[in-house]
Amino acid sequence: MKIADIDLGYRPVVLAPMEDVTDPSFRLICREMGAAMVTTEFVSAEALVRDVSSTVRKLEVRDAERPVAIQIYGREPEAMVEAAKIVERAEPDVIDINFGCPVKRVAGKGAGAGMLRDVPKLLSITKQVVDAVSLPVTVKTRLGWDCENKIIKELALQLQDCGIKALTVHGRTRSQMYNGQADWTLIGELKQMSELEIPVIGNGDVTDAQTALANFEKYGVDGIMVGRAAFGAPWIFREIREFLDRGSYTPLSNAEKMELLRRQIRESVESIDEYRGILHIRRHLAATPLFKGIPNFRSTRIAMLRAAKLQELHEILDEIEEKYLN
Fold it and tell me: Is 30 a catalytic residue?
């Protein structure tokens, strides 16, 4: 599969953009584990144009994580165009436009999935961004605003006409948020449309290697995007890649998985500071499947998620490793 001239290989699996999750450390680990491409946290066009320091920092990409996409979102064409030009100067490999985020503070203000209620504006923004930059532009969106307005098949062709180089589709509507089960039926139907020539990446509920293979085979997508299943589990990319390539995979040991989590903690603290770095990593620690199913774990889990000092957190992880994971 190619995005313009960027070759992601056969049946690539890519990391989804996720706020407060896909920081540089996590992206690099996912690349090392087999992700074909990674994406930054989504970037507010308005905040970027205003030069908000916390937003500008999200543009920092490293050569080791390439190919990498920077994703922007917004509702005003002028801001989106200016933001795309700023992003281009940061030299990612791809600029992605977010027309899929369902959360109220984004979609409720007309950005992200909110754009699905104003398709002419969505298309205008896309065309203006494509025309404003030389980097390949891609789009991530959903099936539609709600179940009565699943417009993705028509929209895909319109986006292609705007000049995008790939389309990622999450198999839910905005009204579904993340509830229920992702429906890949329409994603598969996109691949049956002879008029649609750009690559289609499917997204939604890919939680393991077996599901990834099944979705490739059943729906014929060019690529798959993994989001929430990577929380605290960057090794999912290694498992999927090996399973796709040879029909089986060799799981990492518990010690190897724990070392990856410790690395995330260490690098998060190094890039921010001790207090905020630990706060940032809690989402991964809370979600990691490494601790799922451990009996009588509640008090230890609470202590782990309340830890505010690096030494305290590592001592708790030492205890978990010694008592439960050996």
Answer: no
